[in-house]
Amino acid sequence: MSPRLLWNYWVPQVPDKETKATMGTENTPGGKASPDPQDVRPSVFHNIKLFVLCHSLLQLAQLMISGYLKSSISTVEKRFGLSSQTSGLLASFNEVGNTALIVFVSYFGSRVHRPRMIGYGAILVALAGLLMTLPHFISEPYRYDSTSPEDMPQDFKASLCLPTTSAPASAPSNGNCSSYTETQHLSVVGIMFVAQTLLGVGGVPIQPFGISYIDDFAHNSNSPLYLGILFAVTMMGPGLAFGLGSLMLRLYVDINQMPEGGISLTIKDPRWVGAWWLGFLIAAGAVALAAIPYFFFPKEMPKEKRELQFRRKVLAVTDSPARKGKDSPSKQSPGESTKKQDGLVQIAPNLTVIQFIKVFPRVLLQTLRHPIFLLVVLSQVCLSSMAAGMATFLPKFLERQFSITASYANLLIGCLSFPSVIVGIVVGGVLVKRLHLGPVGCGALCLLGMLLCLFFSLPLFFIGCSSHQIAGITHQTSAHPGLELFPSCMEACSCPSDGFNPVCDPSTRVEYITPCHAGCSSRVVQDALDKSQVFYTNCSCVVEGNPVLAGSCDSTCSHLVVPFLLLVSLGSALACLTHTPSFMLILRGVKKEDKTLAVGIQFMFLRILAWMPSPVIHGSAIDTTCVHWALSCGRRAVCRYYNNDLLRNRFIGLQFFFKTGSVICFALVLAVLRQQDKEARTKESRSSPAVEQQLLVSGPGKKPEDSRV
């Protein structure tokens, strides 16, 4: 049995023209379809256009809920004390659940009610979104000042420099640890991992079943248009996710249970935690509403009989001469169509999972023998690794590097980065079509796009903000010789070792972890019309005893965030130019009968080698730049301060590494294509006179069949 037929067992098949023409005719006399009486009855759900609309909205909502975690990753870290490595692993578990069940779902795909399977998957996605919010409701209210006793207002006295005898009786958080506290933390983190896994599992049937359903029952000429509309609407999902995150993170996390007397935090305070869970509720509700129509669509509907009128008029003007020459070669004899139908419909369903698992290594090795396919997939793995790391941690990087709020970072990304990705993909497809690029042209376009992307990535190493001085953590004695943290100025204080209530000395731009570490013994609130300003006075560790302001020191280069993100967006657009031509190279790099196999292996490699490990790799790299960790029950929790220069060099350097790998792979692809083209020309020049005479008879304007993509 051929590997191509075995692969049909795993990958959801999109029927071709011959297969679609014979669907529903094998069980009727004379080969004519005999529709079910229920299908004959007029119904609004027997309309493929309505299905395209519903599926576009569903995939939009699904990608919105899948991408929402990335917009609130730094907030989740602060709320539950997670490192970047752990949060990256949490984000990658979406792909784990998706990849684990794709085999089984694809196997039953041709035997089940596809719209209902899509509906069940969407309901599971909505339930997973609700499960993601459960940690908020089962956890204790967020206490941004863990040193204050629960019966006292937060930021009241515990952070001040007070003698040991008069200090509030509060033990460090490490002393309050118990087996129950640690178990609760593990339970909360475990729930989020389970929810992410279910989120991936629920998304398995949505896209492949929807695409095959549209292609089965849409008119042959309308199917590409419907799929284009579907993908265009779907690509807006991640941008909406970041926009939703920007709105939700402006609200306080415990908005449903605000403490008495309110809170003294502002959105710019580094201890601020936004309502991350509220976005999951909204997105889950949107997915649940979008899932309802799928339980009313039929298993099969009458095939669309008419081409869209406006599309017919456009093609009549632009493509009539070309279509006349393209229609005749695509026809096959009835014997060939029947043979193909036998292979797809009769042989593939007889396979078992065990049979496929046994033969899969041989199938994989046979496909990887194609050099173009292997190199292009490796290049796409590099690009996907770059995209996965950027999408997961770019909001956090902007927050830390430029001292901006999580809400503003998400707003910038949603307005600049994701639209540039869409523009890059569209422009790449237009260039391939308008320039009629062949394989060599596609390879050159991919290499040019990645070289430009690499070039515009170089300035990113130099656009950023250095870390300001933090007393007791970073020292710049050469610049400020009198600002070292002398133990003598804190000898009379009982400063908590795990406290975090940063204050800033505006005259020297030195930040202290708490007012106690600055030696401040009193707190003053100055009311204004729009907001109140908190000062700490009588500070023994501050030069000349100046008062300090509550909150971290403002960055002097926050204005650079917009130029930085514009360069990132430009690089993303240039990298996305390679999307369509690289996909065409994969289809042209393998035999015609192995295309389905190649596409399936491509997406398998992208998931396993890029989307799963890349967030963990980027998170681990970010953790290595931390200079001050918060401790929770003796374990390392969230990072409070990073070395900004090191963070920028390692994060951008990791992106630069993956881009360089993609450039190398595309350069090798172009070299192989030119070598193959050279060999083909040499072989053509040595052809027999009879073949040359045949080429002359065919006409000088006739091009080889595979000369264009």
From TrEMBL:
The keyword Transmembrane applies. One of its GO terms (molecular function) is sodium-independent organic anion transmembrane transporter activity. GO terms for cellular component: apical plasma membrane; basolateral plasma membrane. Residues 483-543 form the Kazal-like domain. The chain crosses the membrane at residues 89-110, 117-138, 188-213, 225-253, 273-297, 372-394, 406-432, 444-464, 560-587, 608-631, 651-673. The keyword Phosphoprotein does not apply. Keywords: Cell membrane, Disulfide bond, Ion transport, Membrane, Transmembrane, Transmembrane helix, Transport. It is a multi-pass membrane protein. InterPro entries: Kazal_dom, MFS_trans_sf, OATP. Residues 18-38, 319-342, 679-709 are annotated as: Disordered. It comes from the Eukaryota. GO terms for biological process: monoatomic ion transport; sodium-independent organic anion transport. It is found in: Cell membrane. NCBIfam families: oat (TIGR00805). Belongs to the organo anion transporter (TC 2.A.60) family. PANTHER family: ORGANIC ANION TRANSPORTER (PTHR11388), SOLUTE CARRIER ORGANIC ANION TRANSPORTER FAMILY MEMBER 2B1 (PTHR11388:SF87). This is Solute carrier organic anion transporter family member. It comes from Pan paniscus (Pygmy chimpanzee).
